[in-house]
Each structure stands twice: as structure tokens, then as C-alpha cells.
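Continuing the batch. This is chain 6 of the set; chains 1 through 5 are on the previous pages. Same settings as before, nothing changed between runs. Recording input and output for traceability.
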Amino acid sequence: MRWRRRRDKVVLNPLEALGAFAAELVKSGRVQAWVRLGVSIAASSFVTGLGSWGIAVLAGESRLRACAIAAIAISVCVISLWTRSPLTKGIPLCWPGRIEARRIEMLTTENLVSWGTEKEK
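Output for chain 6:
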């Protein structure tokens, strides 16, 4: 940031301060980390949603029921990515107990694996 003297007054240019702040965020890697989390959530939701919807339709479920199955699968995917990210530690996220039960069921019985790690309890 540059300080400018204007008739015995010190003036700080707000645009330079904003630019320096943005540059520091980019240098620290925080912006990249949040973008990576967002892309991971979006891509995982897309793949999980389409895959589970397609499997449900092929299994003979109605299209509406297949959409509901895909919505539950997407929410489980987002919850898993959100809770495992070090960026979101300390940021609360609430979800219904039914989704948590389904998430645990998917992790244990359907061998849902995220990041190639072991299944949760």
C-alpha cells in the first residue's frame, strides 16, 4: 500500500488496499482451497446425482422417486465432503437425522467411499 501526501494530509488509496488484500488471499492459498472445495462438491454432486438417478430409473423406479433417491445421495455426498474438509471445521452444518441414518447406511452397506479412505463407523 502506498501512502500519499496531499497538502499535509496522508491519504490511503482504498483500491490499493483492496488489491493488496486480494493479492494476499491468493498468495496464502485460501482462495484456491475454497475454490477446490466448491468444485469438489459440485462435481461430486453432479456425478452422484446422475449416477444414482440413472440406477434408480433402470431399476424400475418412477422418475419422481428416482429424483428423491438422487437428492438423498447428493446430500450425503455434500455432508461427507463438508465434514471432512479442514476449511469447514468450526462452521456448523445441520441436517435431519433421517439423512444421517441413510448416510451411515450408505457408508456401511453400499460401500460408499470418499477419497479412497476407510468406511466411517
